[in-house]
């Protein structure tokens, strides 16, 4: 996903809907986190085609547009930490978050670090130390791995990242609740997860996802791309719509909360 976004014009759908652009403070208000958090609030941000595909050509970024990039960046600017899976880091060629000077001041006023770190969940710890995830970042990334892989991962990546043992009862798996507690212990309560489907499915199955922001791209992809969630666990979590935006390119921006 590109680090900067061009200006975008949005419309809030509904009887009182009014246009706003990507620099309008009201856009930041629409994506603000709850006040006075004591534990992690987990927001998912995903994109899907009209026919439900989470990727085009194997990448979610191929579905995006100007407005999607603006909303993507706004959510990053609000977050304390960005949580992703190892497959997303590899496929999307992730780098560290980029935050403009103006947004850094706003973040400082909220008591946040100028730039949010990226935390990656990886059961194996097998991340390329030469990847942009490690080499193109202003802040030290976090690697959340399991007990079985911790020592090896720390030996290979400990100079590049903070490696954290995030296992629960099973030493071979990352426990998402333990991972979130580790983030909370570091004061990282406003959590933004950008997937992929495996991480989102893991959080949903553990009843840890507080809200989902879904961009619906006005395209059909056909074929058999993945959904925005993965995994074998099936749960039913009731959500309510918080807002719906649209833009001139035909994208919809849906925000649902518990």
From TrEMBL:
User: Per its UniProt record, what InterPro entries does this chain match?
Assistant: DHFR-like_dom_sf, RibDG_C, Riboflavin_Biosynth_HTPR
- What does the entry give for GO biological process? riboflavin biosynthetic process
The answer on whether this UniProt entry bears the keyword Oxidoreductase reads yes
According to its UniProt record, in which pathway does this protein act? Cofactor biosynthesis; riboflavin biosynthesis
User: Where is the Bacterial bifunctional deaminase-reductase C-terminal domain positioned along the sequence?
Assistant: 41-252
- UniProt cross-references to Pfam families, sorted A to Z: RibD_C
Write the record's keywords in alphabetical order, separated by commas.
Answer: NADP, Oxidoreductase
Record protein name field: Bacterial bifunctional deaminase-reductase C-terminal domain-containing protein
| Provenance organism | Mycolicibacterium flavescens (Mycobacterium flavescens)
Lineage, please?
Bacteria, Bacillati, Actinomycetota, Actinomycetes, Mycobacteriales
């Amino acid at each position: 996903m590109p680090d900067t976004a061009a200006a975008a014009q949005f419309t809030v759908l509904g009887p009182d809907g009014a246009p706003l652009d990507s620099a309008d403070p009201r856009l930041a208000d629409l994506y603000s986190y709850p006040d006075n958090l004591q534990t992690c609030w987990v927001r998912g941000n995903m994109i899907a085609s009209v026919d439900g595909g989470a990727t085009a050509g194997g990448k979610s970024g191929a579905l995006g547009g100007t407005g999607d990039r603006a909303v993507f960046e706004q959510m990053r600017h609000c977050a304390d930490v960005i949580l992703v899976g190892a497959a997303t880091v590899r496929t999307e060629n992730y780098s560290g978050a980029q935050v403009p000077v103006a947004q850094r001041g706003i973040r400082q006023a909220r008591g946040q670090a100028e730039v949010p770190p990226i935390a990656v969940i990886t059961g194996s710890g097998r991340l390329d130390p030469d990847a942009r995830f490690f080499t193109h970042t202003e802040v030290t990334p976090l690697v959340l791995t399991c007990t079985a892989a911790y020592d090896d991962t720390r030996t290979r990546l400990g100079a590049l990242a903070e490696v954290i043992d995030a296992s629960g009862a099973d030493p071979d798996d990352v426990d998402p609740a333990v991972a979130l507690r580790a983030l909370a212990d570091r004061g990282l309560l406003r959590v933004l997860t950008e997937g992929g489907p495996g991480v989102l499915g893991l959080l949903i199955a553990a009843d840890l996802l507080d809200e989902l922001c879904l961009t619906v791209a006005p395209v059909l992809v056909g074929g058999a791309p993945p959904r925005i969630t993965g995994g074998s666990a099936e749960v039913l979590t009731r959500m309510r719509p918080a807002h719906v935006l649209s833009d001139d390119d035909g994208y919809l921006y849906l925000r649902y909360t518990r």
